[in-house]
Design a protein that fits this description.
By secondary structure, this protein is mainly α. The chain contains 18 helices and two strands. A two-stranded antiparallel sheet has the order 1-2.
Length: 520
């Protein structure tokens, strides 16, 4: 049995059509027979198809799991289910296109004897090698901006979730704290080293998803529950773009493929990951929406409506850990871009590269404090950034790369038969571009930006505690006081005590002191 497992691993590591050439920074060659090396290989060095599947599934659904019931309240049950299935398939298709373009670029470069042993190939480099610098610049701008705000969303989600088990600190303060926690991801070299974290992240998300489903069913429907969605076009397309964002997590596809021992095995991995993710998102979102209905319109985080129990607290803690992991997933490609910009990408010193990566975390920290709108920010990012980054640009790039008969004949891989070969592929790509451009970017952009601006008008930028419950004023029943209605002769039922006025800041006393000192 052990011999068979070793043979399987050896076959997995054997170079295939595309050479290995994986990123080997900060890895020390040693005796693979030692217990320490075996443990390191088990937990740290991952490059199999299974590792890629865990990475894709874990990265695809994290905090967005908590906002999908909110999207269902905007879309209605039927539209919510259909959009998840539709965008899940569309996302899997464009992830497949990205994988084919990566293999094409890799094959061409290896024919030119390029060496990638200390270099991670990224999406903008694929576009540069296949289509030129203009495509590279557009791809780099969209990809980096999307990953930047994807990291921002994870940080916002951390503060939103922890508040439900510890509200002694406001969400802004929690953002400061978790910003420091997320900064520890600078010590993870590449996606090759996310083996144990991807596995744990998926286990944590699985628990949270089924907790939401089971807890909602046990809770039952609230009194007078209403399921009135969809009611407004703005809300409808806002919810749709959040689902577009949910299944647009393949902006890191190239980096995940590059970490694989045999990247040509990736083609169907994202589809298989999406199928598993649907078993988490559909039951949880449908159950929470069934139980709470329109209440979700003002509660973008599904955990906020469920009663506090040890099971809910466990879900919050597990999601917090997973969101830090997902922060690392979104931020690691940004680390690579920054390293290449400052000339440290091939540095083998862990501490030096970690220190060089820290400036990338600062703007993410700042933006999470400026726009703490958990839920609405997902839709805005989905319509404006995800629509181009992982849907429109890959489909267009694939069509332009293989526009000539010579390129199609010499393609590293022919399109699948079920898709209609080249003709069917071009039809599907055209549909993806038109649909996402009109529905995702057009209607979705209008709706999500309208909703986002509404959040700014309501709560303001740098809001201290987004969607936090307003504390009720203190009341004292007068029936408990001597004399019943004393000191009000009219006999009031209760007396409302106003909250104390805030104490003046130290600056007030300082200015007051200076005023009097000036007269001496």
């Amino acid at each position: 049995m052990a011999a068979a497992a070793n043979d399987s691993l050896a076959n997995e590591k054997a170079p295939g059509t595309i050479g290995v050439g994986r990123y080997e920074e900060m890895e020390q060659d040693g005796d693979s027979s030692t217990a320490k090396s075996r443990l390191s290989g088990l937990l740290w060095h991952g490059g199999s198809a299974y590792d890629a599947w865990f990475s894709c599934a874990s990265n695809q659904v994290a905090q967005v799991l908590l906002t999908l019931p909110y999207s269902f309240s905007q879309l209605g049950m039927l539209s919510g289910i259909l959009f998840q299935l539709f965008y899940g398939l569309m996302g899997s298709w464009t992830a497949y296109l990205i994988s084919i373009l990566y293999l094409e670029y890799r094959a061409r470069k290896e024919r030119e004897k390029a060496d990638f042993r200390n270099h991670v190939i990224q999406w903008f480099e694929v576009l540069d090698g296949l289509l030129g610098r203009h495509w590279r610049n557009v791809g780099l701008a969209f990809n980096c901006t999307f990953l930047l705000f994807g990291s921002v969303i994870q940080l916002i989600a951390c503060a939103s979730n922890i508040y439900y088990i510890n509200d002694r600190l406001d969400k802004r303060t929690w953002t400061y704290i978790f910003g420091a926690c997320c900064a520890t991801t600078v010590f993870i070299p590449s996606f090759h080293n996310y083996r144990i974290w991807s596995f744990l992240g998926l286990v944590m998300t699985t628990y949270t998803a089924w907790y939401l489903a089971v807890a909602s069913l046990i809770h039952g429907q609230v009194d007078g529950v209403k399921h009135s969605g969809p009611t407004k076009m703005v809300l409808y397309f806002t919810g749709a773009t959040n689902i577009l964002y949910t299944f647009g997590g393949h902006a890191v596809t190239v980096e995940v493929m590059h970490a694989m021992w045999r990247p040509q095995k990736f083609k169907a991995i994202y589809l298989l990951a999406t199928l598993y993710v649907l078993t988490l998102t559909l039951p949880s979102a449908a159950s929470v929406y069934w139980a709470f209905g329109d209440q979700l319109l003002t509660h973008s985080n599904a955990l906020s409506l469920l009663p506090r129990t040890p099971f809910r607290d466990a879900a919050v803690v597990l999601m917090l850990v997973h969101q830090i992991i997902t922060f690392g997933f979104a931020c690691t490609p940004l680390y690579f871009v920054w390293e290449k910009l400052i000339g440290l990408h091939d540095c083998r010193s862990l501490c030096r590269r970690a220190a060089a990566r820290l400036p990338v975390v600062v703007p993410i920290w700042f933006l999470a404090i400026v726009f703490p709108f958990f839920g609405p920010i997902n839709s805005a990012v989905g319509s404006l950034l995800v629509s181009f980054t992982v849907y429109i640009i890959p489909a267009l790039a694939h069509m332009v790369t293989y526009r000539s008969a010579h390129a199609r004949e010499n393609a590293v891989e022919q399109p699948p038969r079920f898709a209609g070969r080249w003709t069917g592929t071009y039809v599907i790509n055209t549909f993806v571009v038109v649909w996402v451009l009109v529905v995702g970017f057009g209607f979705g952009g209008w709706a999500s930006i309208t909703n986002f601006v509404r959040q700014i008008d309501t709560f303001g930028l740098f809001t201290k505690c987004y969607q936090c419950p307003v504390p009720a004023p203190l009341t004292m029943p007068l029936s408990a006081a001597p004399g019943g209605s004393w000191p009000f002769p009219g006999g009031l039922d209760n007396f409302t005590m106003l909250p104390p006025a805030p104490a003046p800041s130290p600056a007030h006393f300082f200015r007051h002191h200076r005023h009097h000192s000036h007269g001496l």
